[in-house]
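Give me C-alpha cells for this 164-residue protein.
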Amino acid sequence: MATSIYQQYVAAQPKLLSPIYTVNVDSKISMKQMIKNGDYSMHQPVFNLISDNDSPTKIGQIQLRMRLSNFHYSISSEEAVELLTHTESLLRLATFHELLSLLSSYPDLARDLGYPIAALGSVWHDKLDNLLVPFYCSSEDRELSLFWFKDHWFRNWRFACVVK
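Here you go.
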C-alpha cells in the first residue's frame, strides 16, 4: 500500500522525545566561563571559534523551555533546520550558549541519553570558510567539538531546540 503525502510529512517530523527542560540562561556569563565551570574537554579549534564568537550581553538572566529533537534517520543539516523550525513554528534552534546552559542545569542529561547533542542555532565559519556546528558528546571526557554543517547527522543525534 502506498503512503500518502500526509503520512510522509508526519513521518519526517522531528520526534520530540524528551520532556521540556526549564533552563536559566545568563547571557552575562561568557561561553568560555561556562565551559570552564562545566569542566568540558574540547579541541583547540572549538576554543578558537568560541573566542571569536563569545560576546556576553547585558541582558542578564532569562528562563527558557528547551527540548531535544531527533529524527530517527540520517538527515542533512538543511533538512533538519527546515523541519525543526517549521514544525508548527513551535521551536527555534538553540544556540551554543543555550546548549551549555541546558547542560549546566542538567549535568547528567547527555550522559543518561548517551547521544551527542548539537546546537544548530550556532553555525560558525572557520578560517577556510567551512560551516561548523558545535556539539556536546557524552563521552567520559564531557567533550565539546565541532561538526561540519555540510555532513549528514546520523540517526542518534539530538538537536537542542527552544520552545517558543
